Amino acid sequence: MAAAALLGVIAVAVSIGEMKIPLGTTLGAVSNKLFGTAFPLSPIQEGIIWDYRFSRALVAASCGASLALCGAILQALLRNPLAEPFVLGISAGASTGAVVVLIVGFGGGLLSLSGGAFLGAMMAVVLVAILAAGSGGGGDRIILAGVAGSQLFNALTSYIVTTSASAEQARGVMFWLLGSLGGVRWPDVYLAAPVAVAGLIICTVHARALDAFTFGVDAAASLGIPVTRVRVVLFGLTALMTATMVSLVGSIGFVGLVIPHAARFLVGPSHARLLPASVLIGAIFMVLADIISRIIIPQQVLPIGVVTALFGAPAFAFILYRSRVSA
C-alpha cells in the first residue's frame, strides 16, 4: 500500500505546478521516456514533466527515504526516541562542510560539494561523541551534545556566509540551507537514488544487530554482535546519507525524527519491517511536503524545510512529552 501511495503522490507532484498538467498527460510523458511509446504531447509539457518535475519528485522521495532511514538507525543505536540527524547536529555539520567548499573553495576544486558535506557530517559525529562521552554518556547527554554541536556548526556557517560570500551568494545559500528542491535535475537523481537504495540494503543486512542494540550495548555484545564494527559502519552510513541529501537540497529537519515513530506504530519495532516502512513513509512525506511548499502560497515556493518543521516541531514536542511521561 505504501509503495502504491508513493507512486500516486509522485504522479500528483508531477502534475501540480504553475502550469497545471492533466494526470494522463503526465503518465504519457513518463511512458514516452521510459518505454519508448509515442503519445502525442506538447514538447513544452513533456520538457516540464520530465526535465523538471519528475526529477524533483524523485529527489524529494530519495531525500525523505534517506533521512527517515537515518533517524531509524540513530534511534536504535543510541536508544533515544529523539535521535535524528538534524537534532544531533549532523545536518548542521554537513551544511558547514558544503558551504566551506561552495564559498571558500576548500579543496581547490578536487573536493565536491557532497565530499565537503560528508567531511562536515563526520566532524559533527565525532564532536557529538566526544561531548557526550565527556559529560558521562547517556541518551539525554547525547541529545544535549547534539544541540550544542548544531549551534556551533550553524554559527560557523553563518560566519562564513557573512564574511566570505557576496550578496548574491548569501541569498542563495541561506535559501538553500532552509531546504530547496528548485535546482535539482537528473544528475542529482543519479546521486540521491543510489545512496538511498544502498543505504536501505546495508541497513537491512544489519537489521538483527539493530534489534539487539535496542536492548543495550551489553545485550548486543552478548548476542555475538560486533558492536564496534556495526557502530562504525552505521554511523558512517548515516553521515554519508545525510551529507549527500544536504549537499543536494539543504538542511531539512524532523523527517528522521517523526517518520520512524510513525512506521514503528504501523509495523512494530522489528527492523526487518521498520526500515523499509520508514523508507516508504519518509519518501511519501517528503513528496507531499514538496507539493505543499508549491501550492500553499500562490505564485511562491516555500523552502521545504519550513514545511517539514511546521509538521515536525509539534510531533517533536509530543514525542518529548511521551518520553517524559513514560520515564
If you had to describe this structure to a student in words, what would you say it looks like?
The chain is mostly helical and 327 residues long. It contains 14 helices and no strands. Helix 3 (43-78) packs antiparallel against helix 11 (227-249), helix 3 packs across helix 12 (255-267) and helix 12 (255-267) packs across helix 13. The longest helix is centred in the first third of the chain and has 36 residues, at 43-78. The chain is globular and about 65 Å long. The model has no long low-confidence stretch (mean pLDDT 88).
Largest sheet: none
- Counting helices, strands and paired strands, the structural category is mainly alpha
Q: How many separate helices?
A: 14
Helix fraction by DSSP (H/I, runs of at least 4): over 70%
Strand content: under 5%
Q: Specify the overall morphology.
A: globular
Q: Please trace the helix and strand order, writing H or E for each element.
A: HHHHHHHHHHHHHH
Distance between the termini: 35 Å
Radius of gyration: 20 Å
- Uncertain regions spanning at least 5 consecutive residues: none
- Please provide the count of β strands: 0
Q: Average the pLDDT over all residues and give the rounded result.
A: 88
